Amino acid sequence: MDRIRQLRNPIRDYAWGSHTALAELQGRASPTPEPEAELWMGAHPGAPSEVRCDGDWIPLGEWIRRDPEGVLGEAVVRRFGAELPFLFKVLAPVQALSIQTHPDAEQARAGFERENAAGIALDDPQRNYRDPNPKPELICALTRFEALCGFRRVGEILAGLEALELPCLAAPLKLLRGSPDRDGLAAFFSGLLTQAPGERRRLAEQAAQAARDERGDSQQCALVTRLAEQYPGDPGVLAPLLLHFVALGPGEALFLPAGELHSYLGGVGVELMANSDNVLRGGLTGKHVDVPELLATLTFRQGAPPLLAPRGADPLEVAYDTPAREFRLSVLRPAAGAYESPRERSVEILLCSEGEARVQDVKRDATTTLARGEALLVPAALERYRIEGDATI
Q: What is the reported pTM?
């Protein structure tokens, strides 16, 4: 358990994925016949990675269970148990993901137990909680990456929606003007999502037409039109008037705690999160939508989300600071010299996003090549490793 291991990682073929981005990252033929949305690196039972061991491929979770402390490290096992506490992904959306949020630890545990007691199978499409874990997450752009995140201030929401002159929103907007606080925003948003199906479709169609007529802010209208083309009849097309639009440049990141409403619109980025697949959706999707559960988890925090830049004085390594206990994202650039791992470390996954590197087990003097799009798992029991090469990891 103290050797660097090659990982074989599954790709999720969700409809919103790219036909080119992940294939090009891994040097495969492009475009692909099916959309490729997410590359998963981790041990989540929904799509576990596999470890190369003595000529065989073994599910990562099974390999960890053979020696949890050797793979994860004593401190990780003590805090999180015998499971990899994070899930690492590459996301490649070409159309919007659902408007969604994620639960905190207490909500995830209670929801998982509740759905288990109700006899809902883990793979049932109607299930909300596929594991008992919270899902704080960090998205870091590899290319320009667009997102909607964080409620706008009520005054901004009122101005944007009133400019569209939507007849079916006259009464709800009057109520929001009379209660321009968190409770008023929660009631307004709840009302939008709980309308009868015919009313929701009418609202979406009116919003799409108003956006095409450019009755409001040009950027917001362009985004509403774009979402209406992808999800016709879905009231989630109003999301650009409710949430902040964020465009990340390569290397910029967003941290999303529990209860933060968001949607990713397009681009390629690495996503690092707690080991969870719990998603509560409110729109812009053909998947299961559970409005009451979504509303119960939202914080309704107002204000633009802060962008994160990597920190560190070492030219070989910078890192992103977040409050998450389960993970830490670093970027290594060994072209400036050999990167030496610290002696005190836990389990790590190394993903090469550019170039090619040589990863050396210092004790054994054994070297593994890490090419673009490939990933390695470095167990905690490995004493020290060195990376050389013109690469980004």
A: 0.94
